[in-house]
Give the backbone structure.
Amino acid sequence: MDATTDEYVLGRQRLYMLPTRHGLYFGLLLMVMLLAAVNYNNGLAYGFTFTLAAVGLVSMLYTHRNLTGLRLTAKDAEPVFAGQSARFPVYIHNATKTRRPGVWLLSRCSSRCVDIVPHSSRPLSLTVAAPRRGYLPCPAFSVSSAFPFGLLYTWAKPLRPTTRCLVYPAPGPRLPWPQNPDETHRHHRGQSADGDDFVGLRAYQPADPPRHVHWKAAARGTEWLTKRFGDSAGGLVWLDWGATRGSQVEARLGTLCRWALDAERVGMRYGLHLPGHDIAPDSGPRHLHRCLRALALWGGAGV
Amino acid sequence: MMDAGIKKVDLAGHGAAAALERVVAQVGQVILGKTDTIRLALSCLLARGHLLIEDIPGVGKTTLAHTLAKVLGLNFSRIQFTSDLLPADILGVSVYDTDSQSFRFHPGPIFASVVLADEINRATPKAQSALLEAMEENQVTAEGETHALPRPFFVIATQNPRHQIGTFPLPESQLDRFLMRLDVGFPSQEAERKLLRAIDRRMLLESLKPSMDAHRFTSLQRTVDRVVCSDALLDYVQALLNATREAGWLMHGLSPRAGLSLVRAAKAWALLSARELVLPEDVQAVAVAVFGHRLQAANSDGDEGNEMVERLLRSVPIP
Amino acid sequence: MFEFRTYRPPDRAPDRHAANGLLLSALAALALHTQRLPVWLMLGVCSLIAWRYLLENYSWRHPPRLVRWCLLLAAVVAVFNTYGTLLGREAGISLLALLVGLKILEIRSLRDYFVSVFLLYFLTLGAFLFSQSLLTAGLAMAVAVVTTAALARLSLPNSLPISEGLRLTMAILWRAIPIMLVMYLLFPRIQGSLWGLPGDAFDARAGLSDTVTPGSINALSSSDAVAFRVDFADQMPHARQLYWRSLVLSRTDGNAWSRARDPVTVNADSWLSRGIGKPIDYTVDHEATGHRWLVAMDVPATVPPEAVARPGYILEAKRPVHQRFQYAMQSYPAQSAEPLTSAAHALHLRTPRPTSVRVQTLIDAWRREPDPVLAVLRYLREQDFGYTLTPPLLRGDFLDEFLFVSRRGYCEHYAAAFATLMRHLGLPSRLVVGYQGGDWNHAGGYLVVRQADAHAWVEVWREERGWTRVDPTAAVAPERVELGMNALKALLEQGALPGELAPAAIRALLEGSWLARQWLHLGMFWDAANTAWNRWVMAYGPERQQRFLRSLGFEAPSWAQVAATLIIGVAALLLVLAATLLWTRNKSDPVTAAYRRFCAKLGRSGLVRRADEGPLDFYHHILTARPELAADSKPIIALYVTLRYGNVARADLVDQLRGRVRRFRVAHQ
């Protein structure tokens, strides 16, 4: 998979322009002033009216110029968990010599006004709620500006980038570690086996020795966890679809997601076992991403 | 190298280019078939930057560092980084001297002009940061006393990129302290044959005569500052930086410091090529070494750093 | 699927910076009206503005709606109390100023902000109903810039200084000027008004009156107001010829002179046929007077289309002159005799009999002279008659008092006395009122005639020559005619006696100080600017527009044609502006341009430089691909590298590079 970057250059064919409500009133004002000038046959009133009219016309070019030549790049968003907000990075790049004040980045759910100085790139983002796992497409957006006088506004034809955000499943509630029969079998070590090295966490059970309670986590206000100790060299766990309970697919994926995160945090090696998709045990951020991605896209979600 | 008739003006007025060419030739006698790597390493030192050499063992990382120090007439010390290395082993310790009834500071191996930090990623972060702090500040603070490091002062660190079990890879922010990262690579067939046939490199090193001294080298460094870097060239550097900031395939853009490093290295490279002005070619020549360790792919299965720099260079037109 | 959705920037409530900008422009607009608005109103509006300022910057509370309505009611009542009406210019402007203050106090939303700005524009426009001078225009333009800058402030980031909005507005205004001019000059002008104008639309102005009593013209002697300006097609005639006639007064009661009743229109064609000498072409730029009579140089031969001819070579406008207007004229230095009807003969001899014996004795003596005209002039010159700007008030019999007691007078005293004497002597005569002389404006190349140049002289009927001009003032004070009123005033101020100074002494007196001369020059420039302004702004009506259009090449410009020209002109100017503003072609320096040409030449032969290929790499590329070109390419590359990357700026090297690139040839393989 290659990361996508979509690029748009705002040219004439991509920009539209209309007067704002105030611009229409301005037109009306000019008409009234012109009537006054005609009626009083007042040369200076003619001159004043036409000056304002000409300023309005020239401001049209300024409005247009405020967006012309800007380059927009939309990038893939960083992966998020379902339920969080995805932030799609959008860069507005001004390679020209003119400053671009009052440029609005508008989308269905957000609006932001920026001032882009010459020869600079302005990083912005579109924030969208990511309710479901899978790929979340970048929403359509546009840039708009009523510079300089607010009488006219110009906007770009809506841009629909192909960039997307990978949404991992929402991590489920903390459940006991999966019981891997082969692993426990191979190492002849059960849940109670104690070694010197910290191996992982599981939900607190009333009989756990207080010494093994993960107090730091408890202090942070999360649920109580119990530290498991064992031989670190053998810290390997298989996250198995079959080990999750329940009939709901999303909940089971959520459980697997939670396990993967926990396993990564405590530095275990872990493998993923999904129906039709296996990932060999490993650890590290890349591995975690690989596993979570498999979970996010499992069952053809969002593809 | 054909240079299209561009005036070879000697900035220092005392044969800077020729002297540097001699250094390259001398080091080249020891390190066979690696002229470009030698030149890059030399430009790194000329630009007052620290050097990180990353490659598998046995390709001559240590020999390169040692040879450079010897030829440049700089004193040399070597620190082998291991997991039990303590900061004091690098910086030095204060020992109570019963004669003078006071603490006396015994300088550590870092007090040398060229410090070879071998396999830096084997040491704990604590030891690593002791070295990196000294690199940044050019001084060592121990027991409330500050001891200035010699000038010039370079750290040439080596690390082994593969099989990183039991290692502590340098974090990104610390990688940034190295001006360049080089990989030596395997020698060519021809050079390897020569290598196999010849006597041990270490012995050759012993017989090597320095071709300058520390004083002369510092003056060469000052000469680098006088290499002309025009606005047109800075435009190009900025275009490169901007491209990194916008490219979707990069995790994040490069900092202004990275840009500054690139300009400094390019100036040194230009001087090494006997030119008094920096050309886009100079920037391109050092870009992989300067940017390679600072770039990260946006995607975990993206390109390696060096390939990304190549891609970047191809994508940015020279203004 | 075609989807058309607009993306309009959201409205943002104006912030403190924007509001402060608006307060500034409100103050500026108010300053434009200081002369007209009553003090209580100025203070009232200023305090409303101050209230807003405190509200904005020291977080005072917004006044509740009830308070605002009460203020509005109070404002309306107060204006009505002051003017007795809510209509008319003064009352309207006062009301508008108060509305601006109240609206500014109210601003909460973007809409309120825009309404305030629009009201300010209107308030500025209101100033033109009172004055259309260059000064007013300049001030109004400044107000418009500040007000428009307040609008610009809305879309500019607050990090920028306030001057940035002004700078932006000025830049746009500067580019808007050509478009404005096209619209101004080509927008079809119509005669008259669309609806009735309020009674106070025109002010009364000082000027000539059609009845002359001793002292009535003298009242104008201190007025610097410009009566009219004249552009001569060729050279300006001699000062002695500059008699501008306006009115002919034929009826007298021995003291006052007035026009004959029932004026008849004469056929002006007869004027043309009687002209003698070389015709003089000129254009008069007449100030508004509120009267119908116009001026023409002695002796007019044509009648402008806006006027009719009256007996006595008099022009009368078809409508009272409420606005400055221009007309082209032709005059002759003299005219041939015309017959005088017996009725006219009798009219021009009618005068009450002299009551004084001394006067009758004088008249009897002159009757015996061969040429009584010369005799009277000689008498005026040789007796101790004096010219003064402050003539004594005469009581009783004017002729007797003037000839024997005061012997001091202004032009109308001499003219009236002389004409009466002529009538007593049996020579038909009449009083001509108008202007004499004028000041030449070097800066503008035209003649300025002021109200102070007002003059009265006499025309006497002679059998052989017809009506003959006689200026008795010239006999007493030749300087009045030779040097003009201004010079005469200067002489009188320095205590010199007119008619008794040698030319050299006069010149010495008139030269004045260097500073005074500079001041005079400055005044001339100011007047020249004003004249051009008047010609193109205040007097630019349907007639002038027609003339302008004809000068553009329109034969008979129709409304539709002009409108089309207007639209095309504006569109063309906008296109040109758009090209300069939007066309962002990178203007490359000559070095880069030359190198590009060099690369293009090679590119055509298939040797294309990669975009990321530096000059040295490209040279090696040439060396491998086309070694025969290397020798020519080498110096080009070397020069390019030195100039572009070596911080070397040497024109000779640039020329060398361009020359070499020009001569560079690639033989196609």
